[in-house]
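Run log, item B.
One chain of 303 residues. Sequence copied directly from the ordering sheet:
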Amino acid sequence: MQGGCVGHLRCARRAGCTRGGEGGRPRAQGGDWREAALYERLREANAPLVQQLRVILQSAEARETERAWLKLKANGELDETRLVDAAVGERQVFKKRGAPPQRHGTHQAKPKHLTFLLDASASMARGDALDGRLHRMASTAALLIEALHGFEHKFVYNMSMHSGGTADAPLLEAGRPPAEEGERARVVGALFAHARSAPAGDNSLQAVRRAVEAAGRADADERIVVLLSDANLGRYDVSPEEIGEALRSNPHVRAYCVFVAEPAAAEWLAEQLPLGQGFAVHDVAKLPRVMKEVFAHAATAGP
């Protein structure tokens, strides 16, 4: 993220800590007013990005309509339902995978299942004063929550944190998006609190493995896991080969890594991961584009 954006987010954090008086405190409906003030500022800063991402979410097609068996073909795989026709010399007895003709009123029968793994490690807190990485993670969480609001019919999502102390600290449960302001603000507050108290260490690899395994059990149109990390993996001897193996540990789950800090390491890691599954994002403004690429990659990946 550029210096101006870092400064803006830091100002938002200070505003959340200093705003006082009944007239200046947002209602958090049970949450801390400082968290509510910060979340309000993040939401205002993200407003244009939220609209961009909502357009992308709206246009995400159902996988079941994107890839289907097209029958009555002259080549491809033999259609087992037309063996008798093949025996009498009929030529159009094959089938292929492809995109069927779009029909008016086509709808998505099952929601897409999204899992977001947010980095709340000690290095996120330590590096925040240097490059605003923890604030960037909080801004990303707010952006995703706001953009996904109202798309419950198309997406079910959950969020959790990973750090040196845990591979899975739940923030939001699947199927239970935060409906009230206080709930959304507490997500951001929990992210800051966890990072500032987390022990040194890294559980990124374990977080991906657990999330991919859990997503594989979901009854969904599509299953997508996104790990967000500060790219501080080499310090703990986590190799891109190990991460890549974890990303591909279930053929029915599409998993991706988004690195939000340490530019040189982030670019290198993104390049070393399987094609289309690693991204270096140092500006929250680029996240909608990344999510668009994630959906496009997931739609074309087999099986």
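Observations after the first pass:
- The CA atoms of residues 119 and 229 lie 5 Å apart.
- Residues 66-98 form one domain.
Flagged for discussion on Thursday.
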